[in-house]
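Here is an idea for our session: we take a single protein and study its fold together. To get us started, please write out a protein record for me. Start from the sequence, derive the backbone structure tokens from it, and show both lines together. Go ahead whenever you are ready, and we will take it from there:
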Amino acid sequence: MESMDARESMDYKSFYERVGARNGWDFSSVKAIAEGVAWDYAKVVQSRCKASDTLLDIGTGGGELLLRIADAAGQLVGIDHAAGMVETARRNAEREKRQNVRFMQIDAEDALPFPDASFDVVCCRHAPFRADESGRVLKPGGVLVTQQVGEGDKRNLAQAFGRGRSEATTGSLMRKYAAELNAAGFVDVQCFQYDADEYYATAEDLIFLLKHAPIIPGFGERDEDFAVLERFVADNRSDKGIRTNSERSLIIANKKL
């Protein structure tokens, strides 16, 4: 990827439009580091799996998580509501020659098209899920692991653009999901949070994120967005990269035996 930072004049809008022409997206190419992260989500999910398990990943995106942990379980199924995401995930799986991973286009906010007690583990990262349906498709004694984006995530970006930051109190989504899981009959519902410093290597990496993640509503639809972004990059550049924050919550819950 040619670096815009090396150019005297940065054409953010042009790069944004080139990104928009892609079919699906893959965040594995985005260069960013975070300081203060309290857990590795993939390792948390892996640690709950046995080699014979079946695993369902809700909101699988480009399948990056499942392909990273494919050896942790016997059969893994990733679902996403976006056709472009599923196509990207299938291409990634074919490239890595993974036979125990499959991907399906399914909206997890509807009833899941799987029989009762189909999975040993259900995981969900940065996507909505239904506690009742997750509990239905889990086997007795199965585990659900979900990581969600906190309300204070990317707060300096939201402040710069004047839109995008949730008015909800930090942790409200985590508490909502915890309450729903308890109501659905889950036990030992554990909740965790962190707020880490995050640094994006280049302006392109940040544009890629804003294009494909719901951080700034309608990013790129207003011409002034690119001037705002250019000022943001200048104001938040450091030796480590372009600074923002990553706020995350984690819930681990068990289905009754």
User: Anything to note?
Assistant: The CA atoms of residues 124 and 146 lie 5 Å apart. Confidence is low (pLDDT under 50) at residues 1-9, 20-24. DSSP finds nine helices and nine strands in the chain.
